[in-house]
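> tool_call: predict_assembly(chains=two)
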Amino acid sequence: MLPRCTAQRVRKLGILPAATPTIFDLRDVCKEYQMGEVVVPALRGATLTIQRGELLVILGPSGSGKSTLLNIIGGLDAPTRGEVLFRGEDLAQYSEAQRTQYRRKHIGFVFQFYNLMPNLTAEENVELATEISDDPMNPAEALDMVQLDDRRTHFPSQLSGGEQQRVAIARAVAKRPEILLCDEPTGALDIATGKVVLDALNEINRRIGTTLILITHNASIAGLADRVIQMRDGHVHSITANTDRKSVEDLVW
Amino acid sequence: MVVSAFHKKLFRTMFQSWGQSLGVVMVVLCGIAAYICFHSAYLNLSLTRDTYYAQNRLADFEIMVERAPETAVFKLERLPGVRQVRKRIVEDVNVDIEGVNEPRVGRLISMPARRSPVINDIVILSGRYFEAGEQRVAVVSNQFAESNGLALGDRFQISVDSKKYSLRVVGLAASPEYVYMIRNVQALIPSPERFGILWVPEEFAETALDMKSACNNIVGLVDNPEDLDKILDEADKVLDPYGVFAKTKREDQLSNRFISDEIKGLGVSAKIIPTLFLGIAALILLILLNRMVRTERTQIGLMKAFGYSNWAVGFHYIEYGLILCVIGCVGGFALGQWMAGGMMKLYVQFYQFPILESRIYLDVLARSMGITLVFATLGALSAAIQAARIQPAESMRAEAPSRVNRVWLEYIPVLWKRVSFTWKMILRNISRNRFRSAVNCFGVAISLSLLLMGFFMTDSIDFGMKFQFRDAQREDVKVSFQREQGRDVLYEASRFPHVRRAEGLLEYPFEIRSVWRKKDIVVIGIEKGSEMRKVMNFARETFSLGDGGLVLAESLAEELQVGPGDTVTLEPLMGRIEGEFEVPVRAVAQQFLGTAAYMDHAALSRMLDESYVINSALLRLESGSRDAINKTLKEIGGIAAVTFNDDAYQSIQDTLGKSMVITNTVLLIFAGVIAFSIIYNITAVSLSERQRELASLRVLGLSTQEVGGIVYFENMLMGALGLLFGVPMGMGICALLVEAYSNDMFRLPFYIDRSTYVISILLTYSFVLLANLAVRRKIQNLDLVEVLKERE
């Protein structure tokens, strides 16, 4: 690993090619939360790189820092220390407004609880994303991709959990983000519905080539991944490359 | 005292949402402050008035005659139902005070030589009453003396007819008859330096006015005020030969009329304003607590699972409302007391009560506390019932998703497609929370109405003043004579230095009748082609007086129920001529001041069997010649009063201006508190409900401004709607005010200046923007990570 100052110099000198397969380069990322009077460390120096187009699964027990890591990558949160280089630019130095722009342009989020707008229909929820995007998909196309084109005019309260999650995915993808971040996307779903959702995500990664980072504490999902990262106590415990990506049907849990 | 955990939760919730709590407290505070202020003033003034009247035996009736002998007065006293009468000599005279350039008007009132508890007695504030045998002395009304630099022992001159008398001030006094010290309705507002009362020994009045053993004014007390009409009819018969020209019941007595109207107004304000505020506080509580019960559903279930009863849990929320309201009530009481003190100070300027104090009424406090508790409970009740109904097991499950509300616009897809998602969310949110949105609108509408109402009063009076003193009365000065005069006096007046033009004016009292309806009025005779008096209505339409016939003030026409083309009967009230006249009504005109009827001067003179008679001269002066004309007029006898048009205008402007500024400031604060509290509370409630939604939008990459826009635009849309409703609502309230404040003394013109609309709308809208600014913090501090992690 290059020392920090060197990395910056190298980038400034333009020695690194612009289109490296590495999309993220996280170096010694720390995050501490001030909880009243005590400081709670959530990340204690996580270091990893993420390659363009890969499907990365992050595993770890609760409190291991995986959500914090995802939020930092997604620009929801800023690290306390360390560098988060996105295509060579340090997200850690971004202002709130810059992070908003960053989320708008590059990031799609999918959460465990779908967080749809209750008073917008499925299609309108997707439009919400397409309206703020420079080069969006057609909302209908995005819904078609998650096989919900027949549910376009339904409100979230008229959809099942799995359907709502697929709308959330369509909404996230419709902006054509470079990275799709999923925090326990199947956490609230049963196995059968969960598989439909995972299938949709897998398809997006394969067909469009969107880099996909998926957090789960369900180890069996790891079979889908190109690489699996194990988090423990705010550290990256291990990184395993998957030589043989499984298909969704083959997953068992 | 041990605070239970339950209460700790209550207090902490209160502090956490301190902005909302403060909103409720402020609204209650304003309402109670208004209640205490108005109600205390109401009680203070009524109490002072009643005691003052009782202690000094304010007359039940007053009869003005040309000249009645003592024997007639004895006859009057023997009428059944009459307890006591007193004969007086009353006359307005020109007062010349050394060091004061202008002639002042003094009302000479005779008093018995020896101090005795007479009807319409006076209160000596300093100095003394007359002593036996004293002749050229006077007790002077306090404020008149003070504002003209008259001290005890000083001398001043009065002119009666063409004779001058020098009087010495022996005492300063006040009287229940002149608490509101104005000479006539036209004055409207007291100007203590220009008009005062001079109480003089009876003997002096008799000599000076040549009324030996006679009188021109009779005041009396009756056993039962309900019989007054009958008694006055009888008295009229007794006094008819002596030229009765006005009979006044106590309720119509000028000073009493003004005070009693004011007191009545205070009583009404004390009911309406607090009800409005407490009602709004209840609405806010309703919205706030209903939301709270929904948020705390799980906690409520948990408490019940622990064994708290439905009642205990329900009462928890009522208690929330009670605590906030009681804090507001106590604060309001303190503020209200302070305001009541200030209000009394304001009243001292208008009313000459020898004592006027602001007391603390504990029963008023108790009552306001009671009212507050009722409203607080009302506001919290529905939340409490909901909380009581929650089943513990059910509450742990997620709440059923809210009903889908489509907006009507959606059924027109062409339009709906063009609506941006921000506006789709706004419109759906409004339709999802119709009640809340309606309250939001209502708050803005009320706020605007309050402002319009306040500014309307200023506009209206200003309009009325300009109407009266610029357009209808155009003379520079009106010189009223003690006796009727002929053309020679007018000619003489027109030859005074600095006088550019002189016109005559004849004002004569009549009883006007239509069928069984009758009223004592003054008919004003205006010269043909007069440049100084115009008979017009508020629209500035001028009415021609022709060669006869009457133009009636609107309030008079309404009272008599006559209109153009009808005929009325006029009977002269002074005894110079007998008989009745049938006169056609030419037109009806709105008038700002007084209940008069207008007639061609020549026709009126003929009616009095004269070819030309006047009792006032209207003068137009060269500019800047006021002092010079004053000097001239001071030298001339037989003048009762000199009234400069500008003075009346100016003094009303000054006095009303000051109190209007205070009233409008208070209304502005009230309007601001209402609009701000409602919008802030509703927005805060809506924000807490939609945290997840808004956080999701932020995650999607919307900036705080864009997310805020959804909230702000909704408020601004509802605010705009509120304004739309507020304008007609405010106009409606103003129209009601016109009705409430109009009587036979004056009529408020319904006039709202365009700038008033603009200013009120801008102010109200700035309250909306202010509330938006206040919730901005909440939007900026939205914790994205936390909110999104929570279960839906």
